[in-house]
Amino acid sequence: MKIATFNINGINTRLGALLEWLRREQPEVVCLQELKAPEEAFPVEAIAGAGYGAIWHGQKSWNGVAILARDADPVEIGRGLPGDPDDTQSRYIEAAAHGVIVICLYLPNGNPQPGPKFDYKLAWMDRLLVRARHWIDSGQPVVMAGDYNVVPTDEDIYNPKSWRKDALLQPESRERYQQLLDQGWLDALRHVFGEERVYTFWDYFRQHWERDAGLRIDHLLLNAELAPRLRAAGVDRWVRGEPKPSDHAPTWIELGPAKRVARKAAPPKTPARQTTTRRARSAT
Known about the structure:
Layout: E1 2-7, H1 15-25, E2 29-33, H2 44-49, E3 52-57, E4 65-70, E5 75-79, E6 92-97, E7 100-106, H3 116-136, E8 142-147, H4 171-183, E9 186-187, H5 188-193, E10 218-222, E11 230-236, H6 237-240, E12 251-255, E13 275-279
Parallel strand pairs: 1-2, 7-8
Antiparallel strand pairs: 1-12, 2-4, 3-4, 5-6, 6-7, 8-10, 9-10, 11-12, 11-13
Helix pairs in contact: 3-4
């Protein structure tokens, strides 16, 4: 089973690109962020025509998250990150799909920092830590996927020097991300790729894509019940190279059946469509 996360950066603007990616890659579960569309403007008919059921949490002009499931309807568990009833930003949604609990999140950017936007980011992450602890203790297989707007380490960015003041690299952001891992969540891409650099985001400016000057900010975290099923992970870089793309590329994991022993395999050759892929080591 393939589970992917993709910051689409405007679902209606890039609907054609989304549908083409779904057709070619056919993930079973998709987490989308930054829909930039109110509830009524979500393209549910087009998504259904591609073979996917969907739930979504929209917001006019900004934010927005959705969970898609191939040949199935996701069963919504909750929307909106608990802990602040005054928070109206559409950044979080939970569902059950294909036997897995799926959490889709779009963590606040936090820039400029210091300031109220960075304070909101840190408070949001504190609330996420509480909710994440609930799912760690649930005993159910859970994936927490999305645009975290956190570069976990300096090895997750092409060159940290020019980004030192950015909210994505601040010690407070990184510390809270590490606290998630300390709870028992597995960073699937880092586990699969090891020390190899892998990027999921390339800024539109200063030819970041052309120079492969990327950042890794899209993450899929697995709890202890799901981690042993990790078989592979990758980034569909070809999507970022299409005309008028999102500044993110779809990032995904492949899961095997429960209780199956993971096997090591040599990295496959990179396909012509520029998908970066690695097989998983044992996650246990």
